[in-house]
Amino acid sequence: MQFLPKTIPEIQPEILPVNESPPELVTFDVSGMKCAGCAKAVERQLMQYSGVISACVNLAVEVATVECQPGTVDAEALAKKLTDNGFPSQSRSGENQREAQAATIERRGQEIRQQIQQLTIALILIILSGLGHVLGTKAPILSNIWFHWGLATLALLLPGRPIIVDGCRSLWRNAPNMNTLVALGAVTAYTASNAALLFPRMGWECFFDEPVMLLGFILLGKTLEQQARRRAASALQALIALQPAKARLVDFKLASLDLRSEELPLDSTSAAYDPQYIEIPADRVRVGEWLQVLPGEKIPVDGEICEGKTTIDESMLTGESMPVLKQPGDTVAAGTINKSGAVVMRATRTGKETTVAQMVALVQAAQTRKAPIQNLADTVAGYFVYGVMGISVLTFLFWYFAGTHIWPSVLLGHDMGHGAMGIGHGVLGMGNELPIIHYQSPLLLSLKLAIAVLVIACPCALGLATPTAILVGSGIGAERGLLIRGGDVLERVHQLDTVVFDKTGTLTTGNLTLTDYLPIFQNSEWDLNSDINVGNKQDVCSTIDGVSGRVDSKLLQIAATVESGACHPIAAAILLEAQQQGLPLLAAEDFCTEPGLGVSALVEGRRVFAGNAEWMKEQGVAVATELSESLQGKTAVYVASGGVLLGVIGLKDTLRPDAKAAVERLRGMGLRVMMLTGDTPSAAAATAQQLDLTAADVLAGVRPEGKARAIATLQAQGCKVAVVGDGINDAPALAQADVGIGLHCGTDVAVETAQIVLMRNALMDVVESIELGRATFNKIRQNLFWAFGYNTLGIPVAAGILLPATGILLSPAAAGAFMAFSSVSVVTNSLFLRRGFRA
What we know:
six-stranded antiparallel sheet; elongated; 16% strand; single chain; 27 helices
C-alpha cells in the first residue's frame, strides 16, 4: 500500500509568543487556612500586592504559588503581609529551603498532635454528657443541669477555644471561614441555654449538650480529614525523602581507589584507616567532583560512573523494580539506590538540577495548579460563608415571624432531657418510657434551625474537592514515573480524542542500522573507486542497472564526515558504522544543519550535502525514481556534491516492542491514533503497516516547523490532540498540542514544552498516564458533585424544609456531624483513586 504525505493547509497555528522575560514564580508555605473561604482570602490578599500577575492557593497542601513580574516582588515582604493578616507564611525561596521544608513538616506534625489532644478532651466530655442521659436518676450528679453547664463551658474553653478564637478573628478581618460558622453556632447554643437556665420562666429548653457534641464532631472530622490529607500527600513526602543528605567526596587525583573499603569513623586510630574521603552535605557537591558510593547507599547527585560496576534500583524514578546494571560511562540519578558494588562517580548535576529535585519541583507545581472545573467552586467559596450566615438569619426570621404561625404543630416537641439528642420529633426518648410532649417557644425553635444552618454548611468540601484528587493522582504518577503538571492538564487529558505519535525515537527505538550502501560513480570529482571493501550489507539496490553492488568505503567516510556536525539518530547511526569500520573522518568545516532536510559541510574544500530527496531537489540534484523505489520502507540519506549525486545510504529503524500493544490499548479507549513524521512516505508506510494504521492516520514528510501546523489543522477540525514525542525535534508540536507528552525524559525532566513527562522508556506509560488523568479528573467531578449536592440538600434540610410535612428537625449537633462527614468523605473518595492503580 502506497502512503502519500498529506498536504497541510497553510493556516497559522495559535502558538503564543514566547516572552523574553518569563514571569517569576514564588512559592509560599501558608498555614492557618481552615476552608475554601480562607484559601480564597489568601488569593485576594496576594493579588492586591503590586507586581503580582496571578496567585494560586492549594488548601490540601497549604501552599501558595505566585506568578509575578521579574524583580518586582519581595517574597519576604509578601510572606509578612500574609502573616500579619492571620495566615502565617514562609517563602520557599532562598538558601533556607531545606530548613523551611523540615520546619513545615514539624509544624504540621505538631498541629496534628494538638488536634488529637483536643479531640481526646472533647470525646471525654461527650462520654460524660451521654452518661448523664443513659443513667438518669441512677447518677444524680451526671444528670444535674449544672453539671452539663460545666461540660459545655469546658468544651468552649478547652477544645473549642482555638476554633472560636480563629472564627472571631476571621470575621473581624472580613474573611469569615468554617470556624466562624462553627463558633457562631456553638456560642449561640451555649448562650441560649444559659438564658434558659437563668430565666426558667421563659420556658425555654436547655441544650448544653449541643455545643459539646458539635465541637466533638467537628474536631473528629478535622482530625480524620487531616490524617487523610497526610496519606494523600505521602507519595510526595516519600519523593522528598529520597533526596540524599550526605555525599562521600573522594580525591580524583588518587591513582587508585579502594572500592572495597568500609566506612570508618573519622577519629579512628586504626592503622589500616586511610582517609580517602570526607563526608559533606549532598547539596554542597559541585559539578566535576568525584564521589564514592557504597552498597546500600543512595546516589547523592546525578553523575556518571567512573570506576566499579554495580546494579542500581531506579524504581523511585521509573517505577520499575528490577535493578539496572551500571558500569563505567553509564549515568546514574540522585536518590537511586546502589544495590551491589562500590563505585566511584563523577557529579554532572547537583542541587536543584538533579533529576529527583526536578521531579519534586514538578510534582509540587502540579499540586498547586487548579483544574478549570474548580473555578465555579472557587467563586462560590469566596462568598460561601457570607451566604450561609445570610441564610441562617433568613431562616430565623422566617420561622419566628411566619413559619410557626403557618404550621403551629411544629411547636409540639419532645422533652429529651437537657438537649435535643435526636434529629426528629417522631423518635422515642432515652429509655422505655414515652417522651413528654411539651410546647416549644417559637424563638427557641427558630434559633435552633438558624444554628443548624450555620453548622451544617461545609465550605471545606468545596475547597478540598480538586486539590485532594490532584494530590493523590500526582502522587500515584510520581510513584510510577508519570509526572502530570497540574489540574488543568488533567481536564485536557479527559477531553482528548486524538493521540499523535512521532515516529523516530518514539514509536521506533531510534537506533537505526545501515542496511544499504549505493555509491554512484558517474560525473563525480570524488575518487569513489576505492579498493577498500568494508564489507557487504544487504544489497537491495543491485537491481538498478549500471550500479555496482560492491560497498565502497569512500561514500560512508564522506557521509560520516558531514553527519558529524549534526545531532540526530540518523547521524549517530552513520557515525557508528564508520567507527566500526575504522574509517577516519575527513577534514571538514562550515557545518550547516537544515532541520527536517539534512546537513552540509565543506569536506576537503568541496561543499557536500547529506539529506533527503526533497533537499537534493532544492540543491538541483536529480534523484531517479527507481532509486527511491529501491529503498522502499527505509530511510534514505542521499549524498551529493557539486550538483552531482555521489550515492545513497539506506537505514532502517525497528519498532518498539510495546508500540503495537500501546496503540491497540489507546484505540480501545476510544482514541484515534495517528503518526506524524518527517521521514519519507515509504518509511512511514512500513511502520504504519506494522501498527495497522491507515493512510488517513499517517502524516509523512512533515518538517519540524510544519508539525505545529499539522496539529493546528487537527485542532481546527475540532480534535482534542495529544502529541507524544521525544522532546528534541518535536517541541513546536508538543507546545501546540492540547496535551504534550514527553517520552524518555529520565535524564532531562524539565521538558518545558510537555505537560506530561514520562520518566521511563515505555510507550505503555502513555496509556497509563491518560488512564490516570481520566480517573483523577473523574474523582474531581465526583468530589465537586458531592460538595455542591451536600450543601444544596443539607442547608434546606437544616433550615427546616422537612419539618412541617415530616416533623424532622435536624439538631445542631447532628448538623455538625454531617458537616464533619462531608469534608472527610471528599478526601476519602480521593484516596479511593489508588484502588484502580495498585502495583
